[in-house]
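Hi all, posting the design record for the shared folder.

TITLE: backbone redesign
STEP: 1 of 1
STRUCTURE INPUT:
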């Protein structure tokens, strides 16, 4: 039966209703769901490729990009289900897009669903998709001031993945300052340092995922 949505709701209210439906469906299926958010090129898909190689079919991924199916193709090639959403210009995913994309996933045997949001440090943080937690991805080449300049994501994230740490020496990056800035915004978030390129710190991320399930 088609669902009834009152006409006078704002876009945000409609989104939140659908997000609630998603959350219930995920819970009923026993799925843990993460909404991964970070700047374009911060290394989100690289982390998912690594994760897919380790978790295989226990992981499913929904990819959000403005255009192309490249990220879903990359992650699928590493051994898990992956569905691409092309927003055609939209700078963030919404709950309805996720609901439709999830319809293409076979949940049997899947423990964790990770939604890679459109590369953007601002807009995705404001839209609920029905996830259990938002995960911020912050890469060293973006610079040290990003958490302070774009706080909305870091305030809401349950985990901050500081990635591309293999570049620390070249970039002369003040990791301790960045972690202190993150903690100032959100004292509860787990902060993990890692590199999808060298694998350094990735066991901490995999452990974080294991504890979710
Ligand atoms: N040195 C280094 N490079 C990395 C690392 N992770 C990703 N990269 C590189 O960073 C670039 C962007 O990586 P992606 O994983 O595509 O980034 P993304 O966040 O998914 O990008 P969008 O989907 O466009 O937002 C690629 O050239 C990767 O090879 C890392 O840990 N270390
Ligand atoms: Mg990507």
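Okay, here is what came back for every position:
SEQUENCE:
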């Amino acid at each position: 039966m088609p669902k009834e949505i009152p006409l006078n709701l704002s876009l945000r209210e409609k989104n939140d209703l659908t997000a609630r439906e998603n959350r219930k469906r995920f819970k009923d299926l026993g799925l843990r769901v993460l909404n991964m958010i970070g700047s374009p090129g911060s290394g989100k898909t690289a982390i998912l490729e690594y994760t897919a190689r380790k978790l295989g079919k226990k992981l499913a991924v929904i990819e959000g990009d403005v255009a192309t199916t490249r990220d879903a193709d990359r992650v699928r090639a590493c051994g898990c289900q992956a569905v691409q959403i092309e927003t055609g210009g939209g700078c963030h995913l919404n709950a309805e897009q996720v609901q439709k994309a999830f319809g293409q996933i076979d949940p049997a045997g899947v423990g964790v669903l990770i939604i890679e949001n459109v590369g953007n440090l601002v807009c995705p943080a404001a839209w609920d998709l029905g996830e259990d937690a938002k995960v911020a991805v912050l890469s060293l080449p973006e610079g040290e001031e990003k958490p302070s300049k774009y706080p909305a994501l870091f305030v809401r994230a349950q985990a901050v993945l500081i990635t591309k740490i293999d570049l620390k020496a070249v970039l002369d990056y003040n990791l301790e300052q960045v972690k202190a800035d993150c903690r100032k915004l959100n004292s509860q978030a787990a902060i993990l340092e890692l590199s999808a390129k060298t694998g350094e710190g990735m066991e901490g991320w995999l452990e974080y995922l294991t504890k979710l399930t």
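COMMENT: The radius of gyration is 17 Å.
Let me know if anyone wants the other runs.
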